[in-house]
Amino acid sequence: MDENTRYQVLRNDEDQYSLWPVDVEVPAGWQPVGKEGTEEECSSYVDEVWTDMRPRSLRERMENRENTEV
């Protein structure tokens, strides 16, 4: 990809994020979150919103375990 490539931010069902060129078909299992821009702009957005790198299923299991131990 070159510096003129426009990207979009995608998220999957596990709340994991990825940058994807806007002119390439979104792969199965991923959805656009509505953010488009340069690679730097999209990366900055992901850094802001993806604060817990654990997959959603792992976070939920850990939360359920904590709630049952109380």
Automatic annotation (TrEMBL):
InterPro entries: MbtH-like_dom, MbtH-like_sf, MLP_fam. Residues 2-48 form the MbtH-like domain. Gene3D superfamilies: Structural Genomics, Unknown Function 30-nov-00 1gh9 Mol_id (3.90.820.10). This is MbtH family NRPS accessory protein. It comes from Streptomyces tauricus.
